[in-house]
Amino acid sequence: MTKKKTCKDITQHCFEVELQQGKTLADSAAGLPTLERYDVSSMANTTKWSNGKFREIYHIDSKALVADYAKGLPGLKAKFSQIQAPIYFSSLWQWGLPTTPVKANGTCRIKRMSSSDVPISFRYVAKDFGPGVQAVANARLDINLLLQGVLKGGYDDHSLDWWMEKLLGLGREFGENVLFSLEFGYDGRDPSAIRPSQLGVKMIAFKEYRAETDFSHILYSQ
């Protein structure tokens, strides 16, 4: 089992568990002679694509390392594809982060870090992911699809310390997730990553998500 450092927190523990489970699944799949495809949910390797600047975004790197491991197995390397999910539309308000009520034009404001004019990838993953998986399964092998989309609205800058205070135990990691995306792109600018339009996948707009979601409990706070 891969370990990143001796002193573990909950996010590193989850990294190790997810990595081991992913490797176990890949090993099992590699032994199936009738298997035609092995399509996995993955994310960018933040340690690799940031040249070591971000080394502890565990929930992302675990998925990336599982994908690399599976692709390297003789029984899977010729059957492998992957799909990357962006940040969920629902994450901000479900986690209780300050967000303004959605306005009539379908926009909202959220708090995040660093430059407010750099877009962050959001999507209605609960409905977009299925069509994305189907498109990958129907495409040629060795596909790396990023379900990328941008949430229209406004951003208020805030610090990593603020995120760590608001999301105890997870704020540092998820805050660095945003910082990585701002500096290196959500997919780390991996040249192998393609976009939904290249496979003919139509993404659901935030307007449609808004029509199905109750935002009455969202209040903006400092």
Secondary structure topology:
Blueprint: H1 10-30, E1 38-42, H2 46-49, H3 58-72, E2 80-84, E3 87-88, H4 91-94, E4 108-112, E5 122-123, H5 125-138, E6 144-146, E7 153-157, H6 160-166, H7 171-184, H8 206-212
Helix pairs in contact: 1-3, 6-7
Q: How would you describe this structure to a colleague?
A:
This protein has 8 helices and 7 strands. The termini are far apart. It has one domain (7-220): 3-Layer(aba) Sandwich (Rossmann fold), CATH 3.40.50. By secondary structure, it is α/β, with parallel strands linked by helices. It has helices at 10-30, 46-49, 58-72, 91-94, 125-138, 160-166, 171-184, 206-212, and strands spanning 38-42, 80-84, 87-88, 108-112, 122-123, 144-146, 153-157. This is NmrA-like domain-containing protein. It comes from Talaromyces islandicus (Penicillium islandicum). Pfam families: NmrA. Residues 14-139 form the NmrA-like domain.
Summary tags:
two-stranded parallel ribbon; Rossmann fold; alpha/beta
The count of strands amounts to 7
Anisotropy-based shape:
globular
Helix-strand pattern: HEHHEEHEEHEEHHH
Estimate the mean pLDDT confidence. Answer: 82
Tell me the radius of gyration.
18 Å
Structural class: alpha/beta
> Residue share in helices?
25-40%
Give the CATH architecture.
Answer: 3-Layer(aba) Sandwich
- What is the CA–CA distance across the termini? 42 Å
Main sheet properties: 3 strands, parallel
- The CATH superfamily label reads NAD(P)-binding Rossmann-like Domain
Protein name: NmrA-like domain-containing protein
Domain NmrA-like: 14-139
Pfam families: NmrA
